[in-house]
Amino acid sequence: MDFSVREELEALRASVRRFYETEIKPKIADYESRRIFPRDIIEKMGAAGFFGAAFGEDVGGSNIGFEAVAVISEEISRLRPEFGYTMNMQAMTCPMTIYNWGTEEQVQRFVPDLIAGRAIGMFALTEPGGGSDAAGSMQTRAERRGDRYILNGSKMWITFSDQCDTGLLFAKTDPNAGHRGITAFIVEPKRFKGFTATPIEMRGLSPVLRTCAVSLEDFEVPVENRLGAEGDGFKVAMSALDFGRLTVSARLTGLAQACFELATDYAKTRVVGGQPIGRYQMVQHQIADMAVEIEAARLLTAKTAWLMDTNQPARRAASYSKYFAGNVAKKAALATAEIYGGYALADEYPISYYTAYINMLHVGEGSPNVQRILIAEDALGYKDANRHPIKRRSLNQKAA
Ligand SMILES: Cc1cc2nc3c(=O)[nH]c(=O)nc-3n(C[C@H](O)[C@H](O)[C@H](O)COP(=O)(O)OP(=O)(O)OC[C@H]3O[C@@H](n4cnc5c(N)ncnc54)[C@H](O)[C@@H]3O)c2cc1C
Q1: Is 126 in the pocket of ligand 1 (CB under 6 A)?
Q2: What is the ipTM of this complex?
Q3: What is the mean pLDDT of residues 298-316?
Q4: Is 365 a catalytic residue?
């Protein structure tokens, strides 16, 4: 790994900042007050190349790589955490999975529009019965009838499902085969009847970039939209989560950094007992922990990205970085709230907002306990976290 400052990555970080200043900051309050999904902003993010960094030029990507994905995800989440969702729905969990697992026809049909932000993506795995054991609790059924699958069931906590044009959805084609009975589908909720998304009211999260409960009633999926073979769905989902955990680690690092910046600003200016609170040793202890731990989270995330860029197994690293960045961000949010005292609760400061997104990312893409299980079983030698080869389109093409 190269630790020197890479100019192209720093330029990318600066371009995300500029984009935020010109395209998001002046407009987002208006979208929120009118409850409008910022579709045009997402399309501009696509046009700016934010989603295509790890995709080949054949689908409109720039092929800069996963380290760039981490930088963009971190920076956008530091500035405006709800836009971090786009790095999953428009980049990693949805289009990257189609890119890695799809036929040439599926890739060319769906990926370019998703990474350009012209189509809104979705990743629908979790169900009301529980997300940690997604395979065990999956009740959604897909039944093949001629050249269609008919899907019935429900999904829970599905981000952007109220706006989705092209998404991934997992259902059981063989309910008696455990995780081997799961199949992945590319779904088009606006083309076919039977898909209803109902936004979940969540105080503290964005009112326009939303997460919903989904109900499927005889929802049709053409056979040519099946992703992989029948029964491959669990492998597809796990490989999607590897890439999703990269962006989630980066998003958590960005949020921790945002807390750190708030905390240091306030500690330098809030005067109590005749001096800024930053002069007090116990506050310095909190600031020191944040500074070091955020850098460590960033480096673990960069290592995950580097493994992906160099086509090495990255599942262990993705778990480590997601687990660590989640704990670091939680601790940073708590310390920042303590440093702000009562003012942490004032809407004037975004501490509660950051904390809500940190809590969400802490549990999403594998809760801390799920990560602990994966990490400990690997460390104890029970289950090698890197036992499966990574599924990457570039590698498949080389092998072909
Ligand atoms: C805002 C938001 C957006 C989301 N977006 C999406 C999305 O777009 N797509 C999607 O598919 N999902 C999404 N999710 C769902 C998310 O991935 C799940 O919430 C997560 O996987 C946990 O599932 P659960 O909430 O059902 O908790 P549960 O699985 O019920 O777990 C509850 C608690 O029990 C613990 N636990 C469970 N099993 C064990 C065990 N074996 N040992 C020890 N502890 C255990 C967990 O760690 C957790 O603390 C989103 C969630 C939120 C809140």
Answers
A1: yes
A2: 0.98
A3: 95
A4: yes
